[in-house]
# Entry
Amino acid sequence: MINYNNAPLETTIEVRELFENPERKFELVLLAGEKGLNRKIKDPHIQKLGLVLAGEFHYLDPHRIQIFGKKEITYLTSLKKEVQVEILEAMGKRNPSCFILSRGMPPPDLLVEACNRHDIPLFSSPLKTSQLIDHLNQFLKDRMAPTTTVHGVLLDVFGVGVLILGKSGIGKSECALDLIIRGHRLVSDDVVKIIQTEPTTLFGTSFNLIQNLMEIRGLGIINIRDLFGVEAIRKRKKIDLIVELVDWLSIEKPERLGLDQNTIKLLDVEMPFIQIPVTPGRNLTTIIEVAARNHILRASGTHTPQELEENLLKKMREENSG
# Structure
């Protein structure tokens, strides 16, 4: 079996991605510190500045987005000017990624000056503090989730996200094309981007450059959306089952009963895993369809091999007792 558990990709983002986000959920206005838009955000958690403004500067995490709410601004502006300067200078030396004021509050002049002096981006948003934090949390959760890539094909088969793996040339794309012709949907071919959105949940998607495209030896690059229509593709799909296509001779003991659910670790998530031996004339498409249906049955509590084992043991007990 090939080791598919690649190291996670870097999950930092630049502050400018908040400002230039095409969805504009945050409605940010840049007030100061434009030269610092390339600063990195390395922690997806949001920080409010209550303790920091009280002088506990070691609590300021420079890798997080820092939020000024109404209470924080009210407290800061209530202080003497020299105290404000001292606090803002100490905060600036911690090199935070950026500051955001909620509720569209006008920034104190001393804050603007400090941000320009230290090249710290300062934004304003009309959203309430709770709304702003919710939107930022969701954006950062999606954008900074642990991510990796694998060489394979991801499809939606009967609603099951099936990730097909295997060494180059074993027939992953050809098998996927046959599944698409049968009405299933392609997410990504060749390179699959995998994102861990929850501790036990993986989603797969395609990179924009190769979205909707497949490479078929003998044909070259084909566009699935153009050939089969929009119903033949999906942009994103939860991964439910991992299937590895392997040479028949490379498996010492092919699975015969399926009593145990094998798993494989991907981004530290244990995923259901099966190996399908490949030989000439074997209908891999049908086997993968049945594997998807069987996964649905197992998820609903039906486990055919276990039921067979239980029935056999029951039959043996009856015969022994008779």
Q: What stands out?
A: The longest strand covers residues 185-198. The chain is about 30% helix and 30% strand. Residues 147-304 form a domain with the Rossmann fold fold (CATH 3.40.50.300). The mean pLDDT is 89.
